[in-house]
Design brief:
Elements (H helix, E strand, L loop, with lengths): L1 H8 L6 H18 L6 H19 L3 H64 L3 E6 L4 E4 L1 H6 L19 H17 L3 E9 L5 E12 L5 E10 L1 H23 L3 E6 L4 E4 L1 H6 L4 H4 L10 H17 L3 E9 L2 E13 L5 E10 L1 H53 L5 H32 L5 E4 H11 L1 H7 L2 E4 L4 E4 L1 H17 L8 E10 L10 E9 L31 H11 L3 E7 L3 E9 L6 H5 L1
């Protein structure tokens, strides 16, 4: 710069323009090389001061100095222009950044407001009771559930009030004491059971939590209270405790021996009856195994049973020998694995009953049944033989009575003829009775295996046999659809012959008998019977004289008659035979009747019979 001043001092006026350009170039070089554009005006002024100072003291041409100052002024203006432009761009950038920050802040505030609204909506619609109190116990917030519980239509009506304004002091004081404790200790009270009165005046159990809310200085300025109605759970817990109490009482008083073991066959609990068998208390048995109480071979068997049941996860009923007070006995043990939700077995529950006396009684009953069956067979054989052996002498009485009457009819007096007729009639009735007895005994002694039979064909054969009686009474037989069932064909034929013959015999005077026979297939469920057996229901309905309903069961007894022999003949065995046939087919028969209207017989027979060895060999 000093060299430049020396040059200016020796410059002549005619050399101004080249020198001016040189000075302009030097000034722009200074500006362009400056790292800070904001320093342009100051740099220009410093150069101008240097030039003026040099001109004054170095006696530079004044015209040249003015030119230089003008040039510097232009440069200052140009620098100021660039400076303002730079400031404008910086300000524009700052404004853009500020706009972005404002928008982000507005967006954050909107999101915060939405979160607050969602939180308020959530808290306000929770079924739990939520409120905030100040340190004086006044409500400063309450959700809808809490407001409703205290009988307020809106949360605003609670603000500034205390709990004593809504529920009796005897209940409110408990909540106030909770608040005081939290305010004093700063420690929360979690899930405390408290009793309160709701807006309907009903007592409700609450699970009540109180938490202190602290400010920035870690001072408590409010309390958050959260409550949940646990009345239903409380009642359920009380019911469960009562049930457990009844269960323990039941277990303690049951005569059955009850025990519970873990998976290692260690006794966890036993009832007093189990302990009494060992002359011990339940506490003396818990924690021990079968090896501590029973002989080795028995203990090994018991534990092997336990392991098998745990492995198979199935209940077993076992009859085994047990020792009680040194005496052997027979017990029936039911062992059940205790299976958890994840499918693992956590232990075994066992119940066993002393069945020694029952087994002895069963043995006696079997022996008695065997004797009874033998006696019944002998009785049936005797009835059959006796009836069969009576046939011959009775036939002779009837035959010789008829011969005597035919040969000596002219020689007999009227009384003798009457006696002879009575004898003949008595013999004939005796023959009928013996035949009925034979038929009754043959139901079991001469039974045939069950085979599929068509009931309609059987009824058709019966109607052919009764054709003469049907014509005599001008009767009408209506037969509906009939199924195929498994039965003894001869006995089923006897059944229908007795029922239809009964209806033809007991018809009303001057009224032709009408007999209607129908059937349908019913399931066990429709009949309220166990199992899945199909049943054939047969209805035989007539328009006969009927009988008093009080005799509906007695009519099936042997020799039971509702009418004397002069009005209606018979031995009183027909319906008894029907009942025995139906029972032999594992069925049922019943009668419904109305005097002067008619009688309806209802027969239930299995469509398919259960097979057994005895039935197949008959």
């Amino acid at each position: 710069m000093s060299q430049m001043y020396k040059g200016l001092k020796n410059t002549k006026p005619g050399n101004f323009c080249p020198l001016s350009l040189l000075m302009l170039w030097l000034i722009f070089s200074v500006f362009l090389n400056s790292p800070n554009i904001n320093a342009y005006p100051a740099q220009a002024i410093n150069v101008a001061n240097s030039v003026i100072f040099s001109a004054v003291f170095a006696e530079i041409n004044i015209f040249m100095v003015i030119s230089i100052i003008l040039i510097l002024a232009v440069v200052v203006l140009i620098g100021f222009f660039f400076h303002q432009r730079t400031l404008s761009k910086a300000l524009e950038q700052k404004n853009k950044e500020l706009d972005i920050q404002i928008k982000e802040r507005e967006k954050a505030e909107a999101a915060r407001a939405q979160e607050q609204q969602l939180l308020k909506t959530l808290v306000d619609n929770l079924p739990d009771f939520i409120c905030i109190k100040d340190t004086q116990g006044r409500f400063i917030f309450s959700n809808s559930a809490h407001s409703w519980f205290l009988g307020c239509n809106s949360s605003d009506s609670l603000i500034g009030k205390k709990i004593t304004d809504f529920i009796p002091m005897e209940y409110a004081s408990v909540f106030e004491n909770d608040d005081k404790q939290v305010l004093q200790t700063g420690q929360p009270l979690i899930c405390q059971e408290r009793l309160a009165i709701d807006n309907l005046g009903q007592k409700r159990w609450l699970s009540w939590t109180v938490i202190a809310i602290k400010n920035e200085k870690q001072q408590i300025d409010s309390l958050l209270c959260v409550g949940q109605d646990i009345t239903a759970r409380k009642k359920a817990d009380d019911a469960l405790r009562e049930s457990e109490k009844r269960y323990r009482t039941l277990i303690a008083t049951l005569p059955q021996r009850i025990f519970y073991k873990d998976v290692n066959s260690v006794f966890i609990s036993v009832n007093p009856a189990f302990a009494a068998d060992l002359n011990l208390t339940p506490q003396e048995i818990v924690g021990k195994t079968d090896f501590d109480f029973f002989p080795k071979e028995l203990a090994e068997k018991y534990i092997a049973d336990d392991r098998r049941i745990i492995l198979q996860k199935k209940t077993e009923t076992i009859e085994e020998i047990n020792i009680s007070c040194g005496k052997k006995r027979i017990v029936e043990v039911v062992k059940t694995p205790v299976i958890e939700e994840d499918g693992t077995v956590s232990g075994i529950l066992g119940i066993f009953t002393d069945i020694t006396e029952r087994k002895i009684a069963e043995a006696k009953l079997r022996a008695f049944t065997t004797k009874l069956e033998k006696s019944n067979r002998e009785l049936q054989d005797f009835a059959y033989i006796a009836s069969h052996d009576l046939q011959e002498p009775l036939r002779k009485i009837v035959v010789f009575g008829e011969r005597l009457r035919n040969r000596c009819i002219d020689k007999l007096t009227d009384d003798e003829k009457f006696y002879l007729d009575r004898m003949h009639e008595a013999g004939r009735r005796m023959q009928t009775l013996i035949n009925d007895l034979l038929t009754f005994s043959r139901v079991t002694t001469q039974a045939h295996p069950f085979v599929p039979i068509n009931l309609k064909n059987v009824i058709r054969e019966v109607l052919i046999d009764l054709e003469m009686r049907i014509e005599q009474t001008k009767g009408k037989i209506e037969v509906g659809d009939m199924p195929v069932i498994e039965a003894d064909q001869l006995q089923i034929r006897q059944l229908f012959q007795n029922l239809i013959g009964n209806s033809l015999k007991f018809h009303k005077l001057d009224v032709p008998p009408v007999i209607n026979i129908t059937s349908r297939i019913l399931s066990s469920a429709q009949l309220n019977k166990p199992g899945d057996t199909e049943w054939c229901e047969i209805i035989v309905k007539d328009n006969g004289i009927g009988f008093d309903p009080k005799y509906a069961e007695r009519v099936f007894q042997m020799f039971f008659r509702l009418h004397n022999r002069t009005t209606y003949e018979g031995t009183g065995m027909g319906l008894a035979i029907c009942k025995k046939i139906v029972e032999r087919h594992n069925g049922e028969i019943s009668a419904e009747s109305t005097p002067g209207v008619g009688t309806t017989f209802r027969i239930l027979l299995p469509v398919k019979q259960e097979r057994d060895e005895g039935e197949n060999t008959q």
